[in-house]
Structures
1.
Amino acid sequence: MLTYELDKTRSEPMYLQIYRHIRADIELGELHAGDRLPSKRSLASHLGVSVITVENAYAQLLAEGYIRSYPKKGYFVESIPAIQPTVRKATELPTSVQEKQTEENSLFPFTVWARLMRDTLASDQTRLLTRPPSEGVWELREAIAGHLKHFRNMNVSPAQIIIGAGTEYLYLLIGILLGRNTVIAVEEPGYRKIADIYESMGMQCRWIPMEQDGISLNDLMQSDANVVHISPSHHFPTGCVTSIGRRYALLGWAAQQENRYLIEDDYDSEFRLSGKPIPPLFSVDVTDRVIYMNTFTNSLTPTIRISYMILPPPLLTRFREQLGYFSCTVSTFEQYTLARFIGEGYFEKHIRRVRKRCLDKRNALLRNAKQDILFQNAEFLGTDTGMYCVVKFCGSMSDTELAEALHVRGIRTIALRTCYHVCPEQDMQLFLLYY
Amino acid sequence: MLTYELDKTRSEPMYLQIYRHIRADIELGELHAGDRLPSKRSLASHLGVSVITVENAYAQLLAEGYIRSYPKKGYFVESIPAIQPTVRKATELPTSVQEKQTEENSLFPFTVWARLMRDTLASDQTRLLTRPPSEGVWELREAIAGHLKHFRNMNVSPAQIIIGAGTEYLYLLIGILLGRNTVIAVEEPGYRKIADIYESMGMQCRWIPMEQDGISLNDLMQSDANVVHISPSHHFPTGCVTSIGRRYALLGWAAQQENRYLIEDDYDSEFRLSGKPIPPLFSVDVTDRVIYMNTFTNSLTPTIRISYMILPPPLLTRFREQLGYFSCTVSTFEQYTLARFIGEGYFEKHIRRVRKRCLDKRNALLRNAKQDILFQNAEFLGTDTGMYCVVKFCGSMSDTELAEALHVRGIRTIALRTCYHVCPEQDMQLFLLYY
């Protein structure tokens, strides 16, 4: 029987701890391909956790392809490269099971990208081999500024834009920039990784509950947080859009004290499906308290790691003083290619295609739901933004049962419970449904 | 007159603080192109610092192209993009003066790289659009393992190799992995950035003096450090190579306590010019206490941001538990291209060419030195490793005078003094000479 030390005091939820222990065992070859995992029930009682916790851990391992489930048989370990000092042949390796392709990729205009990359490679060689400033290649920052002007009506100087290899890396830079004495408010429920990363840097996090029109201002004010990290244009996971009123209230909160900042994570604002986009906090901020972030990894393909943040002038100065010696983490080849991709209009074209696809899938989902008993009296929330919606089920089914029922229907889902820092014990009957 | 608040208490040396203030002023357009900077003497007395401090700040700005010096006239600001919400035309931007091309680039086999990139783009698209594990693309890690086996006789499993977008990013990951309670010993003198980055994450640094055959073990033992970051195969800036004896002593030190680790920064081991390479600490370590790091940014071109670290199995497990949710920061396109580049032997071919070039330049340097009065009785150190050597001058010239004399001769140099955390006040007459 698998025996792991679980730390109930850690902010990391139990199911994730179990998931990581098992993942490590598999990757280090301590669990072998074909090994049968204990039943959820028995492992739960063995580890002294709830069955739902093990359920969630197994679900995670399933989703990432570490294990496979056979009806009535149970869960079995998949084969993946183990760590031994023997170099394995590439032939042994069908794309590692850790590598899962994401749905959106199918829409990524690969041939266009490949052509632009070839054009870039054929262009001025000296330029490509010239080290850019730590903020990134000017042409790309210019293209992004242009895109934001046209697409989000944001007035940004390319000089304020900082390119980084993925949002997680930018979180690290922000952590360094704001200093580890920062107390940072994050959304509850929310995108767990964000708090994990800030905490991994020694910053303190506060989990502020979400309300109908955004993060709870009262709870924020009662907290000792001086920075708040939010996704006002489309909250994960609830899909809630922060109201204009709440936005100004947040800006007001930030203006009250010297060292207060708002981090505006605009991660999938491009994919709003209907309705007029609400201007980003960054655009209505006149107090230089908003850090705007967005990423191409989400909108293009996860295999291209390019994100960016926009700093208000005072923080930009601080960035150059404290972090100016960091080298930009994205290769010039890809920065110039992306600059072309945006500049020649392919990015917005791509966005329109993804949107169209999401719209069709959403409509199909809603259509099918109508004839599906499972969705009887179910309530659909946040159906006009992003790549998923939230469904509030009613009736007697447990979250576990609902998860299985949705899985059977081939719908990619996340139980809202799993997005909480403090995982609610009772069933919520709330699920994210991906288009 | 430029007036800046300088913080003598900060670990950051004064000259860097001055450098960053002026840089920020230039970049934010508060200092305009063509503006004349105050003379070193007057700024020094104005800011209450030594002339050498200002000298070093100006030297840094000169090196990075922010300012230009005209003999007998003084120092003048170069033109660079300033931050105003006006989007400038690309035409206004010949490669920004911040962007300086490094010597090695001329040897980078660009056309080969471009071809391999094209081959990669023409290869299995699904694979390119498939998200790799957080450690990186398996084929690249395999190629690196093969290279290290052949080139450094290291037995490493690809599963232990973690790819990251540049060494600085890997420092951040190591910082998170070891935890901010880590007290980390760095070399004095040494590569300043390393301590800067660790400190920016809230870790405490201890500066341990260098001795003839490596970092001082006595000082290390007397310190409260539990991790030491060293470059045993070629210390920057002294070029010192850590002796075998000292290496074992360091491993012994690490083995004495649970949480002790050695970070082996092998940054330019490929460029040893003569003599038998000493096996890396990682290879002789049987206690799983060595983290090995190396980079391609140094050896190929600074515009390709690919570095890697190799973790001992226990740390690898911890990495997967704590950081497994981080996405790999290098795009798959470049990872697969580099895998081909190494696998098809171009990397080692490139290394041989760079080495040859360094060797020729070194010999030319030594030849010229023979007929140059400046180098009379000068002592050359560490001439058989890396891309530079160290020269110990003797005679009455001050470091400032020596710097100018070397500059006139078109030799890229760094005054050894500037590599100290605590900058020695007296002249050292020690200089790094780049080939």
2.
Amino acid sequence: MPLQIPQIPEKIPDIKPLRRADTLGLDDPATAYIAYNDKYIIVFDFSSLDVSEASKQLSALLSDLESVGLQTEIRVGYDESLLVFVQAPRELLGNTVHHSRVKDWLYGITKKHPGGNSNSIVAGDNEAEDLQSLYHLLTWSKELGGAGITPGFGKWENISSAFPLHNPIRNQKLLVHLSKKFFLSSDDLDQIRDLWGTKVAFYFAFIQDYFLSLAFPCVAGVLAWAFLPKYSLAFAVVICIWCTVFLEYWKIREVDLSIRWNVRGVGKLKVNRPQYRYEKEVVDAAGRVQQYFPRWKRIVRQLTVVPFLALSTIFLTIVIGTVFALETFIVEGYDGPYDYYLEYVPTVMLALLLPFINNWLEKLAARLTEYENHRTEDYYEMSLTQKIFVLQSISNYLPIFLTAFVYVPFGETFIPHLRTYILSLAGGAVDPNFAFHVDSNKLRNEVITLTVTGQVSSAIEELALPYLKTNARDWWRTWRTTHTFAMGGQTRFVRGDDPIEARFLRRVRKQAALAHYDVHEDISEMVLQFGYLALFSPVWPLIPIGFFVNNWFELRADIIKITIEHQRPAPIRNDGIGPWVASLEALTWLGSLTSAAIVHLFGFHNATVYGLNTWWTLPITIFASEHIFLGFRAGVRWALHAIGSEHIRKERSELYAERKKHLDELEASSAKRGHLDVVERERRKSVRMTASDVFWTRQVEEGASMRAGLGMIRALKGSDFDEPMKEE
Amino acid sequence: MPLQIPQIPEKIPDIKPLRRADTLGLDDPATAYIAYNDKYIIVFDFSSLDVSEASKQLSALLSDLESVGLQTEIRVGYDESLLVFVQAPRELLGNTVHHSRVKDWLYGITKKHPGGNSNSIVAGDNEAEDLQSLYHLLTWSKELGGAGITPGFGKWENISSAFPLHNPIRNQKLLVHLSKKFFLSSDDLDQIRDLWGTKVAFYFAFIQDYFLSLAFPCVAGVLAWAFLPKYSLAFAVVICIWCTVFLEYWKIREVDLSIRWNVRGVGKLKVNRPQYRYEKEVVDAAGRVQQYFPRWKRIVRQLTVVPFLALSTIFLTIVIGTVFALETFIVEGYDGPYDYYLEYVPTVMLALLLPFINNWLEKLAARLTEYENHRTEDYYEMSLTQKIFVLQSISNYLPIFLTAFVYVPFGETFIPHLRTYILSLAGGAVDPNFAFHVDSNKLRNEVITLTVTGQVSSAIEELALPYLKTNARDWWRTWRTTHTFAMGGQTRFVRGDDPIEARFLRRVRKQAALAHYDVHEDISEMVLQFGYLALFSPVWPLIPIGFFVNNWFELRADIIKITIEHQRPAPIRNDGIGPWVASLEALTWLGSLTSAAIVHLFGFHNATVYGLNTWWTLPITIFASEHIFLGFRAGVRWALHAIGSEHIRKERSELYAERKKHLDELEASSAKRGHLDVVERERRKSVRMTASDVFWTRQVEEGASMRAGLGMIRALKGSDFDEPMKEE
């Protein structure tokens, strides 16, 4: 793909007014305009170090920051920590931004050279761009021209976090703006991108599109609920179609947005993660030193995921299965003392157990992923989130699977036995004529509970709890800190913070104490929700409505969450939601199996009588539905592919516009061919003598070929030679 | 992706010795070196025209050729046709080659600008490249700088063909070379590319790799045949694995070759096919006029393929099914008079019928594809060949399907009824105690016959027959032509050809009479063969050996075929075997179903007793095997993707090498940052007075931050203030 040739302009392109301003301005609205694009906070926690070690590390940190030309101010943080305020001088920041733009151009991520030369100083188009460059200055290795600060890792394990400051005014604006709008336009997404970078923006783009497209299943759901039988096949089909179309649409949308935000293929630019261990350094064809770790080795290592997932699946199945069995038994079968209270025991148990188990498994997954030794942070995250997602889906969907495919169909058969067995264990009296009847609504109730309560509880978990928690901790720490200094006894610190900085520092300390924001958690929540739809839609057609309402709030709530309960995310670039698309596709596929099975078992056949007939036709139903789904998906893909993406076409024609310039110049020359031709004819005559050209010089004279040809035609047609030529 | 900036060199790059030489040289080995890179033959058949019309068209043709600067010589052809010899002057050809190279660069197909300017004259790297440019000069529309000659279409419907001349010496060399080698290296493929262009070369690359990879199923087959039971599951699995791995390998290989041959993504460059009908011309963003035909319309039109294929499938099923039933009946059931002869009637019937039916259906398919109105020849070919392929597979595989899944399992049941029924029709005596026993070897025999005879017959069809045919026709025509001129009576023509041209002209006339070569036919043959393996491998494990042997000859035979029985193909460029990969994948997928079913029916269960049990477990078997296959395929893809393609990596690092030049210059500047830093510090001091900078100027002095920080650490650690600083 050709690129515009970089012109070295006479003068450096003029620069936007830079955003240096009163750091304290926030406190008096008069000077409210304050720069957040060039500031970064590093939290140095030396509680585990003695004075000398701490000071060593601090001086190392400061000199590393100095070495790339960053400015520092130090203030005390909570407990035994220091806040190192980092600011990039306008020349340095502007220059870094320019460099990274040029680099984007060189790697073909943007199509136009930004102009300017290697000393150019430009202002980023938005805070995110500036902060990204600042982030690179801080975190990139020294070879890449960064300070090589890697919070919590290796040399810098005592740096508990490094984060940019929230921009409260713009956060405020954004929130107000979004809460007014029902639908988010791409421009609104741009605003999010400007604040927190594309990686986060893509999540909001996804939840927005997903939310909108939910309108369709909502309508379908209401209709199905009103007019269709329970466990309706038609509804299942509709949902399956919706899932497919939405996914294929999203894939195109992802490309469009990544072109809009100039991040398409940005993955290539990602640098090695500090934890990456390489075997040797090789100099490749292009003469660059590459840190080589054999691919096949990583592949082999990644294969360990298979046993891991297999085992943890089995484990979870056993745990959940047991609790499930117990519950069923107590609820349906047990009629001894305290049964009213006992009913809740298993559920409570599970509620208490699962978090621990999951947490433990996730730790294992993290270790495993670490062992896989991925080169970039991206790959690492992908690999990890995928593992975690599988674990989550198991603990989320398994109960429903058990109800649908074990409890309801087989309950009649095994529960009495179970009861007898347990009672015999308990040594209780077995009532021989105990009859048990499966509650065929259990499935529906279970799905409703799981989805609805899920939404609510997650909302509380995400918003209310952390809010209270942080505030409490915050209050306590403020008290402690001030207290410390009161007791500290050094004259220098008696008065604590300088009063004009106080409020600013309080804000920073608060943010320093906040958690790091991981966008994948929010995405996985949406994916799990999507999964309920894809897998169990026929059970209760009104599910989508709940989701629709929830997601409208979810979107806004997540923005609040980021602004209040998390440190401002470093504006990392990404060109999509990455591996989640694959997860969504897997769920849709699986859905074509499960919903078919559900319809088959609960829709076609009386849900309480299961003959052999039910069972041996089941695989056929599943098989059919799966292949109809696959066929349909292929169709949709083909069609959407044929229609193609508007942005891609736009991009192409932009490229073409540049090429055209070159082509024109080339085609201009084709005029000359005429004379080439004449020249050639002369040449041909001149060489007529040489035997080699005999053949090609017979009809060289003007019109000779024509006369010869005409003669032949006449001859072959046997028409009279002397008749006047009609065409003369 | 950045490209090297086109330097305008002082002097035009010096040119290889051009290949103009004695056209007649072929006849005396002394002057054997002759140029085929700049000659094209146009056959003008005016048998349907009267003299004046014919001469009009001829003059139009000649002037169009002149207009782009091509040289012409005319000689008589067979019957009422003229041979228009077209030759491109070296300046014109060299310049066109240069242009198309620049165009490749502009469209990002090659990474390096070829250098030179718009008047540069270069020699193609090989005949194919030159001929391709000549082909463009002839066929491209006038707007694109071609003569707009479209043989057999529109204005030029009387041009029966236009083709480059075969290069007998190099053909000879190639054949000898290949017949000596057992394995073809990429260099050998290069030779084919040099002669006939990438489109043909890719076919040979495919058959070569396919042939090699067949070695594995051969060995497996022998082992299975020796040690495994009939219809062995293990063997079916092995073959399925092999299919998958081979396909995934081939996909990477395709990319590698297309990079090696500089044709990656060459599809973008394809021009509109003359038959393309557009609705309106729109000027797009880049200001180019585009012939617009709404995408959705094409999609809708393409949907007509569904009913078409459905109907023709049904139709073929009925035809083949009937014949099949008749045959079975006569062979197994009928014992009336002449049964010995009658046995063969149905087979003969089918053999006579099928070609007609297929031919007719293929004509329909062609019409349909025409109606779909594809923009480029490529799309048209793809769409057509895919349709034809489906039809072919039906008539090839259906008989086996019928035997495997109808005749053998159900024969016992329905054949007696069939017999009774037909006899009752025939009014013959029904023998009540007639017992029929399925010949459970029928399936194996059928597969063997179909595959083996298929190979042999196709070999005859492709080689022997056409050879005889052309020679006969050729002899007859030569006689006729000379005869005509003897009778012609015009003094000018009495002597017929100029003796020194005679042999050359005979060769050209011969080639003019040959058929156009369609590479897709050869590919589809291979794909069908692959299909037998993928679908029915467990039936007879020795099949692959037959294929292995056949394909070694097939490869060479196809080269002979092209050189002797076809006009030299125009060197069209392609970056793969296109849609055939999809067909191969479809077959592999289908294979995971069919071979599972075969193993289930013939392997697990006694092939003559089919209980309900057999049937209701069948879908489960199929379902399982399919999903194992899909899982495995996903795994292979993931692994091969992770390993990646060597060429792609090479390409990337070449790109990088170019970028690096720019980057170096940019990174050089980062040295300056040090002083930026100093400057900044001065600035900060100077502005200390302004309130806004109070915060950021407190620790501006050298080491101030450090001292402050150390103080705080000490304070917080509560260690004595006056103790000497360890690190000083």
